[in-house]
Amino acid sequence: MVKALIVNSAATGDASVSRKLTQVFADRLKDHDSSAEIIVRDVGIEPLPHLTAETVGAIRGAASTEAERNALSLSNALIGEITDADIIVIGAPMYNFGIPSTLKAWFDHVLRAGVTFRYTSDGPQGLVKGKRALVIETRAGFYSEGPGAVLDTQEPHLRNLLGFMGISDVEFVRAERLALGADAAAAAIDAATARLAELAETELTLAA
């Protein structure tokens, strides 16, 4: 049985293309394997609290106050969802050339020294092993190559954050040109949908 964790982060609710595409993957995965378990963490609809002076100590290993204990409990729950999953699916719209702050807040809670990574004499080492990640990126323009590529701080950031935890086997599926007319948007969504169906039936499930 495959267990997938889906992390949605769009602020646009039901209008979100990235949320629709993560649902496409979930549906195709269930079609292919009816026993597949899917957990959804939607930080776009239910944002996580950003770390503050009152809570950041929990992520650094201290939990002496009620606020820190609550933050540590939340962090542990989020990390537990990752640990239990075979596949982490992230719905990531591009906001101002990067990721939504809601998604950054999720990473801030799950990137914990000594838990999901550690520092060694040879540099940082990720501790989350044996996982695959699927990142579904939605973009109004075109940034995967050409002149717009230099503005893309979304995909490199996501690759670095996942890799820092030890998740280096990452598949990116992009739906671009969504604001460049109805035909361009439909073509991008159709292509992403087809790729997600392929992944649900073959590569990701076979590796889990």
Molecular structure report:
The chain has 208 residues and is of the alpha/beta class. The chain has helices at 17-32, 56-59, 66-84, 101-110, 155-165, 182-201, 203-207, and strands spanning 3-8, 37-42, 87-93, 117-120, 123-126, 132-138, 170-175. It has one domain (3-207): Rossmann fold, CATH 3.40.50.360. It contains 7 helices and 7 strands; from the N terminus they run E-H-E-H-H-E-H-E-E-E-H-E-H-H. Helix 1 runs parallel beside helix 6. The longest helix has 20 residues, at 182-201. It is globular, with a radius of gyration of 17 Å. The model has no long low-confidence stretch (mean pLDDT 94).
Brief summary of the model shown:
The chain is of the alpha/beta class and 208 residues long. It has helices spanning 17-32, 56-59, 66-84, 101-110, 155-165, 182-201, 203-207, and strands at 3-8, 37-42, 87-93, 117-120, 123-126, 132-138, 170-175.
